[in-house]
Amino acid sequence: MSTHVLAAVLTRLKLLTGTQSDAELSRKLSISPQTLSSWKVRDSIPYSLCVDIARQHACSLDWLLLGEAEQSPAAQDEADWECDMLERLRTLSPSDRQAILLVIKDKQRIQQLEQKLNALRGAAND
Predict the structure, then answer these.
(1) Which residue stretches of 18-93 are H helix?
(2) CA separation for the pair 51, 31 (Å, rounded)
(3) Please, which residues have CB within 8 angstroms of residue 26's CB and are 6 or more apart in sequence?
(4) What is the number of structural domains in the chain?
(5) The domain containing residue 12 runs over which residues?
(6) Minimal CB count within 10 Å: which of 2, 16, 39, 43?
């Protein structure tokens, strides 16, 4: 793996994990900063870790390792949208990010309550 390729993989890992620095990335990956540094020196990253991260974040290994997307146009549009959103979130202050997270959690709670209400209505009509 060339240094350029490894740097690109680390950039995509930061994108997936919502981190900006190597220190933040090492914390998110539950590895020591020294381990991350040794990956850079060896110009190598454990394949098994990449597989695990790809599974956790529902992304393809082609994208994570090579920057290539094997997705349908609709899926690519969604991936582009997600990348855009992540980039925009990173420009915000931590307090603004926290406020957005609270709005998202509220919206998810409302959706869950609506689903439960609809299920109760369906049960009452039966």
Answers:
(1) 22-28, 33-42, 47-56, 61, 73-90
(2) 16
(3) 32, 33, 35, 36
(4) 1
(5) 3-70
(6) 2
- Greatest CA span in the chain, whole angstroms? 66
The residue type found at 115 is Q
CATH of the domain at 47: 1.10.260.40
Q: pLDDT tens, 91-126?
A: 889 999 999 999 999 999 999 999 999 999 888 887
Q: Is residue 99 part of a domain?
A: no
With a pLDDT cut of 70, the percent of the chain lying above it is 89
Each as own residue / partner, the long-range contacts of residues 81-89 (CB below 8 Å, 24 or more positions apart, any chain) are: 83/15, 86/15, 86/18, 89/18
